[in-house]
Amino acid sequence: MDVARAADQATAPTSGTASATDIASMTWDAYASAPSTATGPNADKIKRGKYVATIAGCNDCHTPFKMGPTGPEPDLSRMLSGHPEQLGSMPQAGAPGAAPGPTNTRFSGPWGVSFTANLTPDVETGLGQWTFRNFKDTIRSGRHMGRGRPVLPPMPIMMYKHMTDEDLEALFTYLQTIPAIRNRVPEPLPPATEAAVAATPSS
To answer: Is 152 inside a domain boundary?
Structure first.
């Protein structure tokens, strides 16, 4: 275990937000306005992190949408789990230009096709093995882990990289407390692949 991970785990939250069942039964407005149920030494940080996630619009792209009684709304049974694995990298209809897919988790544009990431603490498919340093380096640099591939649109990295360290740490701490959802998001498609898929005749 490296020093950064040890330091992060030493300050890990001792109790998180509402259970997966409770969250799934809520409307988006009810969840967003509900007070944090976190306890322990990081309770205030988790509360702040939930607030940051809400006003920064994390659920707008990272939570798959479903059709609700008044129109599209975040599906909280899959909160912040990213583009659904079962949808794969299905072709996007229409011309490129940040056009979203049916769950609002798949976007096509001049960069190719991007799929929103799984931000839940699932160890294999989400942020469960990330440290705060990994998270901060990603946001500050616009590259995965601070050194990997670029984080693609529509992620507003140019704005988020100006968050304070305190808000980034609060956001990361909150994300580590939400229900872990196993969902392996597809890798992004480059522009050439997108063009080839779009040109393939349907059967």
So the answer is: yes
Strands 71-74 and 112-115: unpaired
β-strand partners of 143: 150
Residue 202 lies in a domain: no
pTM for the whole structure: 0.83
**Alpha helices, DSSP H only, in the chain?**
3-10, 20-24, 28-33, 43-55, 58-62, 132-141, 157-160, 165-175, 191-199
Domain of residue 93, residue span: 3-190
Q: Tens digits of per-residue pLDDT, 171-201?
A: 999 999 999 999 999 999 998 654 555 555 5
**C-alpha 147 chain-centroid distance:** 19
Q: What DSSP designation does 51 have?
A: H
**Do the beta carbons of residue 149 and residue 143 sit within 8 Å?**
yes
**φ, ψ at 107 (rounded to 5°):** -130, 135
Residue 16 main-chain phi, psi, to 5 deg: -100, -150
Count of structural domains within the chain: 1
Helix (H, G, I), strand (E, B) or coil at 144: helix
Asked if residue 34 is part of any domain, the answer here is: yes
- Phi/psi at 108 (5° precision): -120, 145
